[in-house]
Amino acid sequence: CRDYHDPGREWGRAMLWLALEERSAQGAVRSVELVFDNARGDFHVKIAEGSNRITVSYKDGAYSAVVNGRHDVAPEELFRLGLTPPEMERLRNRYAFTYGLPMNLDRAQAAIAPQGALARIRGAPALAVTVTFPAAAGSDRWLLYLDPATCALSAYAVHPARPAACGELALLDGEIALGELRLPATRRVYSLPAGALLRTETITKAKRLGE
Q1: Which of 94, 110, 146, 188 is the most exposed place for a label (fewest CB within 10 A)?
Q2: Is 182 exposed, middle or buried (0-12, 13-18, 19+ CB in 10 A)?
Q3: Nearest 5°: CA angle at 117, between 155 and 183?
Q4: Cβ-Cβ contacts under 8 Å for 177 (sequence gap 6 or more)
């Protein structure tokens, strides 16, 4: 799977900028910009939603937030906006992990099943590979659905370890090429087990930085 998406093993040293459009099932749209500095482990996300312009950064092991141009934001406002340190970490993990699939599985100390199982996604055959994570990473179970012919990632499902948490299924379409890196262009994310559409995420622009 990684040989298809990252044959040159570039992800771990790449610096990438991605612009996304995220559209909820109700039609609300927000713009997102992501910067991955994978060699340093730094991460930045800018979110434009309604009247708010929010930047969350992870640099040198610490999180920071800028809200509508203000660096000194009261803790109660950060709490109201869902920008406490644990929430900023979840935001970083969401983007850094899912947009880095399957390249970052080795960094996450994931246990990958040695064999896959035959499955079908959108009526097409797929190879379903089970991935589990240690307790420190949440103990969630993921299923990666691969194209049997190319080994490209065509979908993934998240089954949380916490019984009360809802899972997600992401169906992937299209590709964005950044050198030898191939990233899925569009993700349609559905709830599990209900199957309701949650959001659609589309990469509208992308480029490599620092080269």
Answers
A1: 94
A2: middle
A3: 25
A4: none
